[in-house]
Design brief:
Elements: H1 3-28, H2 32-40, E1 65-71, E2 77-83, H3 86-91, H4 93-98, H5 111-118, E3 123-128, H6 140-148, E4 155-161, H7 174-192, E5 199-204, H8 206-219, E6 229-233, H9 239-243, E7 247-248, E8 252-253, H10 256-259, H11 262-269, H12 278-291, E9 298-305, H13 314-324, H14 332-342, E10 344-345, E11 351-356, E12 360-367, H15 379-388
Parallel strand pairs: 3-4, 3-5, 5-6, 6-9, 9-12
Antiparallel strand pairs: 1-2, 2-4, 7-8, 10-11, 11-12
Helix pairs in contact: 6-15, 7-8, 8-12, 12-13
C-alpha cells in the first residue's frame, strides 16, 4: 500500500470516528437527564463564589432586595428576590436599614413586603429568567434596575430561581417550572394582594416559554385571570424548532448536521420530553380573548436582537405569525410582506411592527444589536414593560 493510500485510509478512519462520536452524542441526547442539562443548563450556576442571600454584592442598596423562599405544592423550595424600586427604598430607607440582611425567614414581616402590599399604585413584574445561572447571574441584575427605573417609586420586581437552579431544590422539567411560576403568581395575587391588572409577566429566553405557559394556564381557569401584559425577550417558538437552530454559547451548532436530514431530525424530536410549545400556547391564549368579550384586551411585546446567535431572531417572526393567524387567515410569507411594508424603521436601532390582532395588540421589535443577554438592559426592554402596564400605549385607556 502506497503512502497516498495509507493517508487516505487514515482520513477515512478519522472521519468515521468523528461520525461515530457525533452519532453517540445524538443518541445520548435522547436520555431525559441529558436533555435536562441541554435545555436548562441549571448546573451552570455562574455565581459559584457569591452568596445570593446578600444581593448587595450586585450593587443594590442595603435591603433594597429581600431574598426569601416559596414552598411549592409538590414539596420544593424556591429561592426568590423581591427588588424594591429605588424611590420606594429612599422613602423608607430608615426602616429598611434597620432590618437584618440576608434571607428573610418570613417575608411578610419585612418592610419591603409591606411597602408592596400597602401601596395601591404599586406595579409588579414577575420575572422569569433564561437557562443557566441564577437570579444574580450576568445581565439579570442590571435588567432589574433598568426596569425599576421606569417607575422608581412604583415598579417592584420579584424573580425566582426555578427548581434545580441556584439554591432552589429539585430538578427542572416543563411541568415543574409551570408549578413554580404558578406558585409565584399565587403568592403575588393571594398573599401580597396585587390584582393581576397590576402585574406584568416578563420572560427572557427559557423564561418566555414559562411566562406564556403561565398566562395560558390562568386564561383557561373556570374563572380566568388575565395579567396586564407580557414582555418576551429572545423567545423561541418551541424546543423542536430550537433543536435545528440552537448554538451553545452562540457558537457550537448542536444539531445543525442532523437538521440537514429532516426525517432524522423529526425522529430525534420524538424523544424530546419537554416541548415548551409557545407557538401553540400563545395563539390559544389569544383565541380565548377573541372569543369572550368579557375578557380584557391582551398586550404582548416580543423583542429580539438580530445578532442573537443563541436563539435566532426568526423565532420571534414565527411567534408573531402564530399569534396573528390565530385571529385571521394569513400565510407566513404574506405577513412578512405586510410587515416590511408597514414596519417602523429605526435605522441602526432595528425595526418595529405593531398589529392589532383580534382583541389585543402584539408588537415585535427586532434590534440590530443586543445579542442574547445584553439586550435585557436596553431602554427598549424597559419601555416595553412600561407599555405592558398600559402607559404610552395607543390602545390603552390608561395611556398617559
Amino acid at each position: 500500500m502506497g503512502a497516498a493510500a495509507t493517508a487516505l485510509q487514515s482520513i477515512i478512519y478519522a472521519l468515521a470516528g468523528v461520525v461515530a462520536l457525533y452519532a453517540a452524542f445524538v443518541t445520548i441526547l435522547t436520555v431525559p437527564a441529558v436533555q435536562n442539562q441541554v435545555i436548562y443548563l441549571n448546573k451552570v450556576k455562574l455565581t459559584w463564589w457569591m452568596d445570593v442571600n446578600f444581593p448587595e454584592q450586585w450593587g443594590f442598596l442595603h435591603n433594597q432586595v429581600t431574598p426569601f423562599t416559596l414552598d411549592t405544592p409538590d414539596g420544593e423550595t424556591l429561592h426568590a428576590w423581591h427588588i424594591l424600586p429605588p424611590g420606594a427604598w429612599q422613602d423608607h430607607a430608615e426602616d429598611l436599614l434597620s432590618e437584618p440582611a440576608g434571607l428573610a425567614q418570613d417575608i411578610k414581616l419585612r418592610k419591603s413586603f409591606q411597602i408592596l402590599r400597602d401601596d395601591p399604585e404599586a406595579l409588579l413584574v414577575l420575572y422569569f429568567h433564561g437557562a443557566a445561572g441564577t437570579l444574580g447571574s450576568g445581565y439579570r441584575p442590571p435588567n432589574y434596575r433598568a426596569i425599576s427605573a421606569m417607575g422608581p417609586h412604583r415598579v417592584h420586581i420579584v424573580a425566582i430561581d426555578y427548581r434545580g437552579f441556584g439554591t432552589s431544590t429539585g430538578t427542572p422539567s416543563e411541568k415543574g417550572l409551570q408549578i413554580d411560576s404558578q406558585r409565584l403568581a399565587t403568592w403575588a395575587m393571594d398573599e401580597v394582594g396585587i390584582p393581576p391588572e397590576r402585574i406584568v409577566l416578563f420572560g427572557q429566553s427559557l423564561g418566555t416559554a414559562v411566562a406564556i405557559a403561565l398566562a395560558h394556564h390562568y386564561a383557561h381557569l373556570q374563572e380566568p385571570v388575565h395579567f396586564s401584559g407580557m414582555v418576551l425577550v429572545a423567545p423561541f417558538a418551541d424546543v423542536e424548532l430550537l433543536t435545528a437552530t440552537y448554538r451553545v454559547a452562540g457558537t457550537v451548532p448542536l444539531l445543525e448536521p442532523v437538521a440537514k436530514f429532516p426525517r432524522l431530525l423529526t425522529l430525534l424530536n420524538t424523544f424530546i420530553r419537554d416541548k415548551w410549545s409557545s407557538k401553540t400556547r400563545l395563539p390559544e391564549l389569544i383565541r380565548l380573548h377573541n372569543e369572550d368579550m368579557a375578557r380584557p384586551e391582551y398586550y404582548i411585546n416580543l423583542l429580539h436582537g438580530e445578532d442573537d446567535y443563541d436563539i435566532p431572531w426568526t423565532h420571534s417572526d414565527q411567534l408573531f405569525w402564530h399569534a396573528v393567524k390565530s385571529s385571521e387567515e394569513i400565510s407566513f410569507e404574506d405577513l412578512e410582506g405586510e410587515k416590511k411594508a408597514t414596519r417602523l424603521e429605526m435605522g441602526s436601532g432595528g425595526w418595529m411592527v405593531e398589529r392589532r390582532s383580534g382583541r389585543g395588540v402584539i408588537r415585535e421589535e427586532i434590534m440590530k444589536y443586543g445579542l442574547h443577554d445584553r439586550i435585557m438592559g436596553y431602554p427598549s426592554v424597559s419601555l416595553a414593560v412600561w407599555r405592558a402596564f398600559g402607559f404610552g400605549r395607543k390602545d390603552s385607556q390608561h395611556n398617559n
